[in-house]
Automatic annotation (TrEMBL):
Its cofactor is Mg(2+); Mn(2+). This is D-alanine--D-alanine ligase. Pathway: Cell wall biogenesis; peptidoglycan biosynthesis. GO terms for biological process: cell wall organization; peptidoglycan biosynthetic process; regulation of cell shape. The gene is ddl. Belongs to the D-alanine--D-alanine ligase family. It comes from Pseudoduganella namucuonensis.
Amino acid sequence: MTLSTQEIQAFGKVGVLFGGSSAEREVSLMSGTGVLQALQSKGVDAHGFDPGQRTLAELAAEKFDRVFIALHGRYGEDGSIQGALELLGVPYTGSGVMASSVGMDKITTKILWLAEGLPTPRYAVLDARSDLAQVAADLGLPLIVKPPHEGSTIGITKVGETAAFQAAYDAAAALDDAVLAEEFVTGREFTVAVLGGGAGARALPVVEIVAPEGNYDYQNKYFTDDTKYFCPAVLDAAITAEMQRIAVAAYRAVGCEGWGRVDVLLREADNKPFLLEVNTSPGMTGHSLVPMAARAEGVSYEDLCVEILRSARLKMARVKE
């Protein structure tokens, strides 16, 4: 896709926000570098900006006409930077303040999904007073323990026996004020990328993830070639359609827009899909799954970046003086 001079001028001066100060900084730097190069290759006047190294005052001084958010994790994917951009009046890609905040909180996301009748694994919220043995009995073993406000599988532990539960809790609690224990669903792992918003939100082809020994951790996500991906996933057409349906419903329930990715498990026993989490600012690295799904539809990485950039807007109505 070749952009006309008029389209390029309409974008104006574009900031690509990447890096930041979350635990996912390294991945964000890779994502943002890819996006920056892609936009520049299309002739867009794009400039990198790292909120982890520069201040909001400097962001305001750049006078960007719009920004592409390629930040992951806290302060970039949780509504913080989105709120700052709303105050500055700078249109931005992805979800707004509320949806970003909700999507970053796996507990609140689950509450919303369950209220909408959407399937997600059973769970318990833990604190220092929780009876871990009772939680293990209620949810069954193995189970998953995770910090609910981190991404990229950071701080996640699979607990196979009650004796290992406390250490898993401590590891998650070191990263978060709350800890989420979740029923372990045995089955295949998938992700569904979603573009657009509201009634116009649509799912891209489903991606199946086959990680070494089933361990799709931070290292296997971003830094090895051992994880295998199948896109479109080899699935019965009815299962594919249902997975895409609940992914779009989950995305819309949180209020997402622009783009996102919904992670899904397909239970081995009965091929029932279960929603795990929604990512409101997904990775855009060489290993990332939204670009992979787009390619399966014939959309290049560069064209995907342009499509996302086109959707940049302020989400809150501005009071006219």
